[in-house]
Here is the input.
Amino acid sequence: MPAALLPRLTALLLALASLCLAAEVSQLTLLHVNDLHARLLPDENGVGGFAHLKTAIDREIETSDSALVLHAGDMVQGSPVSTIFEGTPVYEVASEMGFDAHCLGNHEFDYGWEKIREFEDASGAPIVSANVTGPDGRHLVRPYVTLEAGGVQVAVIGALTPRLPRLIRPVQAGNWVARPLVEGLRSTVEALARQTDLVVVLGHLFDDEDELVLREIPEVDVLVGGHDHGGRDEPLVIDGRVGVKLRPYGRELGRLDLSVDTARGRVISHEWRRIPIRTSMYPADPAVAEMVEHWESRVSRLVDVSVGQCARPLSRSEIKALIETALRETTGADIAYMNRGGVRDSLIAGTVTARHIWNILPFDNEIVEAEVTGAELQVTPEVSGTLEPDRRYRFVTNDYVAGLEEYRSLQFRPVGVTLRDAFLEWVKERGRVP
Here is the structure.
């Protein structure tokens, strides 16, 4: 071969090799939401709502080569429809929204673990969790689902925070437990990494647990998360693998565009966007809107009634303090404690409706009380203030708090009213907040 042709041949071979490698790269879009919490309707600012979210999902699918739609847990619990009808109608509405998979969230247990299978039947899409098992090792729901989009074989593996016992009452979980993440996921991830092009963990996890999964299980390519309502402003990236998470209530839709090397089974590049769901931008999908109206009409007469006025916007922390004041005033207690995690919404200035109170306190928690000494309460850091160790105090809280480990030594008794009803009546009597 003439020496002059050698460089040309080398360049041609390199070009051919490049083309072969390029042929192994596929484009995949993951559309995702988390913590919808049954917020079927838009908020007062015209943001969110299942019917508007559906329109946004459809538009993003139209502009992608191939797409999967994922929900990272806590579909239920957070609005009157969910509370009154125990979650199932919310999954029925979600069945029209095009989800390919859901994972278990802690609030899927709120109406008892038995309801979870009913949710899956209503959803039209699998609910997955690899680390929630019974004493015999059986899974409560399937551990994973394999999906195909644009020629990419995708394993979607569910994960739920092992801190589940602090998030629900024991009776709601039965004998099911959420195993430690690395132990509960590794074998499933490793097996599926050999069989598929992309491994996605769909996890309802705390932020530090997202990082644990990506650091300790390198076969995980993508983690689509939920649970921490603060979401992420930027993706979590570890060794080229990516974790994403949104803020709650369907107020935004995540779009993660991936270039996937299917030959090597890895992500080459990614681009992530958080898309605000403004009703002015995304008209309601008619079919979903009809379902939402059907269920909302069944609760509207109860909750869409004025109970007072709010003088200024109130944060969740300010509402927590208001609830504690209401508890003291309605029960005559010396000390009241409300867990901040039980306060599920803020308030804007203007008319306060019963729906606002239901959205703030969607759980059917009962008020409980105990006679305790200051020394007994001083071991619980959430209860602030200077207490006299030998003095006896009347202490009120809710039955969820009473079940936490640090309070279990106290002898609580029920007051006979739900926390939501007590706060609602307190607001009605005052006619205003704060």
Summary: The two ends are 90 Å apart (CA to CA). The chain has two domains: 24-296, 305-433. Confidence is low (pLDDT under 50) at residues 19-23.
